[in-house]
Design a protein that fits this description.
Layout: H1 13-26, H2 39-48, H3 54-67, H4 71-75, H5 79-86, H6 92-109, H7 118-122, H8 129-139, H9 149-157, H10 166-174, H11 182-195, H12 216-229
Helix pairs in contact: 1-11, 2-6, 2-8, 5-6, 9-11
Length: about 230
């Protein structure tokens, strides 16, 4: 199937706010799908979730945290033992190295406590802006907006942004959403991306935003072109 192009223009601010309002009503109880009991477990789960589904991470972390329940324990783990546990998450060698290193940083620099501050979080091994934003918004309920592949795709399809980087998408969307709602808006977009605005084929006929979304006309045009080419 041909790749669905993103809109080439942003929607008006009024239209963007209407789209986001619909998503807020559609996903009023949106929360992370990752299972965790404390900030340490969330941090490790988010690192493991890169290019992996949350469902797969949730199948992996119980065994990981049973064996390494604290940063102190994980910091002293042997890499091949951790690799064996996280192998199903993909990129397991790199992820095992990153979570051990992050745990070591927590243990040695923060007495085993996950910091709340962005700068301190991003200084941890294997932690970038997206991971820091997730931990800040979910574990500590701070005003932060994380951009993953679902958020990037849905924000573009809705015409909320033309940003070519996650940071630019973050900046564009947070200009539209009150700061108090940043930590929820991430979940509106990610859940919509998982449920309906899928890649590569969005379920536009079931989408509550379809009537005002700039992307369905693009899909219709592509379908007409394909149908014409078959004649």
């Amino acid at each position: 199937m041909a790749k669905i192009p993103f809109p080439t223009r942003r929607v008006t601010r009024a239209r963007a706010l209407e789209e986001l309002s619909i998503l807020e009503r559609t996903y009023p109880h949106a929360v992370t799908a990752l299972d965790y009991r404390n900030p340490y477990e969330l941090l490790i789960a988010v690192i493991l979730s890169a290019q992996c589904t949350d469902a797969r991470v949730n199948l992996t972390t119980p065994a990981l945290f049973a064996k390494y329940p604290t940063p102190h324990a994980l910091a002293r783990a042997k890499q091949h033992d951790v690799e064996a546990i996280v192998k199903s998450c993909g990129f397991y060698r790199m992820k095992a190295k990153n979570i051990i290193s992050a745990a070591r940083d927590l243990d040695e620099r923060h007495d085993g406590v996950v910091p709340r501050e962005r700068e301190a979080l991003e200084a941890l091994a294997g932690v970038g802006r997206k991971t820091a934003n997730v931990v800040m918004s979910v574990a500590f309920e701070e005003a932060a907006f994380a951009v993953d592949t679902h958020v990037f795709r849905v924000a573009h399809r809705l015409g909320l942004t033309l940003g070519t980087t996650p940071r630019r998408v973050e900046e564009d969307v947070t200009k539209l959403v009150p700061e108090a709602k940043w930590r929820f808006a991430h979940h509106w977009l990610i859940l919509h991306g998982r449920a309906l605005c899928k890649a590569p084929t969005p379920l536009c006929s079931r989408c509550p935003v379809a009537e005002i979304c700039p992307t369905p006309p693009i899909i219709a045009k592509m379908n007409r072109a394909r149908a014409s080419g078959k004649r």
